[in-house]
Amino acid sequence: MRNDSRLSRMLHVLIHMDRHVHSATSEMIAKMLNTNPVVVRRTMAGLRERGYVSSEKGHGGGWTLVRPLSEITLLDIYNALGEPHLFAIGPADDQPQCLVEQAVNSALADAMLEAKALLLRRLGSVTLKQIADEFEAKLEARSAAANSCAS
Predict the structure, then answer these.
(1) Within-domain flag for 1
(2) Which of 45, 54, 66, 100 has the fewest CB atoms within 10 Å, measured from its CB?
């Protein structure tokens, strides 16, 4: 099963959008993500419906961030993307009458529910601003290191 990278990719896009003054076209975002503009529009539509971005059609149009990063959590974007599967593992259903399979599936289901609840709580506690601030700190550290090497 392939990883679903939509959450990571949209977080990336939103932080870039916050750093730029002008709106970002679907084509620009598609180029950044190495995908098709139609995929971008379809994915961004969920974010627009939730009020995180807006879009303008035509010349000079594009996508604009409408809420500050401090008001958007990772969980918000996860939900806006339709709550993609969090885990690649899951129960087997080859032998539904097998008592061993039933016991295994029950144990896995309990563990998966606990793991999902923990992960969703964590996603809800991290804002995009926190991620952007971490990026800024790393950028400043890199710049300082480059300047000290140039001296």
Answers:
(1) no
(2) 100
Q: Residue 82, by phi and psi: left (phi above 0), alpha (psi -120 to 50) or beta?
A: left
**Average model confidence (pLDDT) across the chain:** 91
Q: What is the pLDDT of residues 51-99, one digit of tens each?
A: 999 999 888 789 999 999 999 999 999 999 999 888 878 788 888 889 9
- Under 8 Å between Cβ of 145 and 25: no
Q: How many domains does the chain have?
A: 1
The domain that holds 136 is classified in CATH as: 1.10.10.10
* 121-145 average pLDDT score: 93
DSSP string, 33-55: HTS-HHHHHHHHHHHHHTTSEEE
